[in-house]
Amino acid sequence: MRLGVIGPTGAGKSLLSQKLAKYYHATLIEEPVAKSPFLPIFYNNKETMSLIAQNAFYSDLFLLFWKEKDNQNLVCDSTMFSNLVFVEIMQLQGIMNAKQAALTYMICDENLKRLPDLDLTVVLVRSNEQLFRNVKRRGRDIEQGQEEYLGFHNTNYYSSLRRIFKYYHVPDSKILWLTCEDMEDPKEFSQIVALIEAQYEESLR
């Protein structure tokens, strides 16, 4: 199964991806954005660096997916739609203009032509309170002082993602909208696995 995990900043994508990769003995593709040298540049000057940074993130992510394009047992701590959500939200915020957004979509289109589809995308659904609590708990310096940006991002994330799924004709059967509380709880993690496997079986029908 080729499985992608997606959600807003602080949703727990990395934690769930790591746990699922271990459970399924699958290759884990970790999101490269957090380690990108472009991330602090973007956070410090969003208007100037939005297009350059987003496409730098895309290039790094595409390369990771490309290297594993023939791997049928894969868990991805991100998907090729992740950056497009940011693009949609930055356009709403006035950080990125329509021309820049259109160019990013064109690049995404070319990337997607060269990669196999995911079998299932798990969307982590969290409240604003959960997201801010998780961001604060992990304590990344780069995210400090970004409350306004992250709050706007959280508020508009899921509606933006739904538009992207619709634009790329991703069937509902290949999407699992997952509301969770504590992935570290063995009982809840077992429930998550059961939901994933049920949705995967549904996608095959």
Task: Walk me through what this model shows.
The chain has 205 residues and is α/β, with parallel strands linked by helices. It has one domain (2-203): 3-Layer(aba) Sandwich (Rossmann fold). Helix content is 58%, strand content 11%. A 5-stranded parallel beta sheet has the order 2-3-1-4-5, covered by helices on one side. α4 packs across α7. It is globular, with a radius of gyration of 16 Å. It starts with a strand and ends with a helix. The mean pLDDT is 89.
Number of domains: 1
Number of DSSP E strands: 5
Which term fits the overall shape? globular
Q: Structural class of the secondary structure composition?
A: alpha/beta
Mean pLDDT: 89
How are strands sequenced across the largest beta sheet? 2-3-1-4-5
Largest sheet: 5 strands, parallel
- Between the first and last Cα atoms, what is the distance in angstroms? 15 Å
Q: Into which percentage range does the β-strand content fall?
A: 5-15%
Topology as H/E string? EHEHHEHHEHHEH
CATH class: Alpha Beta
Relevant CATH superfamily: P-loop containing nucleotide triphosphate hydrolases
Uncertain regions spanning at least 5 consecutive residues: none
Q: What is the CATH architecture assignment?
A: 3-Layer(aba) Sandwich
